[in-house]
Amino acid sequence: MKFYVGPEREAEIASIAADIMKTGIKEKDAFHVASAIFAKCDYFISTDIRLLKLRSDKIKMVTPIEFVTEMEGEE
């Protein structure tokens, strides 16, 4: 499924990002994660240790290695 998150969705994404920023995540990172949540992504892949500490029931934060390991396990 493809999903475009453009400027017309800014208010909705900003609301999600505001909640994420309450956990100490920086604004730009919060908007990236919020966009992924808004687009209903299952995973957010990052190597940023601080960002990976974010816990959410809306998206799974994983490293590239964790992602590959999970995908290989699904085969």
| Discrete helix count | 4
Instruction: Describe the strand arrangement of the main beta sheet, using strand numbers.
Output: 1-2
Give me the Rg, rounded: 13 Å
Number of strands: 2
SSE order, one letter for each helix or strand: HHEHEH
Q: What is the percent of helical residues?
A: 40-55%
Q: What is the makeup of the main sheet?
A: 2 strands, parallel
- Estimated structural class: mainly alpha
Beta strand % = 5-15%
Query: Outline, from the CA principal axes?
Result: globular
Folded structure, characterized:
The protein has 4 helices and 2 strands. The relative contact order is 0.14. The protein has a two-stranded parallel sheet with strand order 1-2. The protein is mainly alpha-helical. α3 (49-52) links the parallel β1 and β2. α1 (10-21) crosses α2 (27-38). The chain has one domain.
What is this structure, in a nutshell?
With 75 residues, this protein is mainly α. The protein has helices spanning 10-21, 27-38, 49-52, 64-73, and strands at residues 43-45, 60-62. Helix 1 (10-21) crosses helix 2 (27-38).
Pick out its properties.
single chain; 75 residues; mainly alpha; two-stranded parallel sheet; 4 helices; 2 strands; 51% helix; globular
What's the helix and strand layout?
Elements: H1 10-21, H2 27-38, E1 43-45, H3 49-52, E2 60-62, H4 64-73
Helix pairs in contact: 1-2
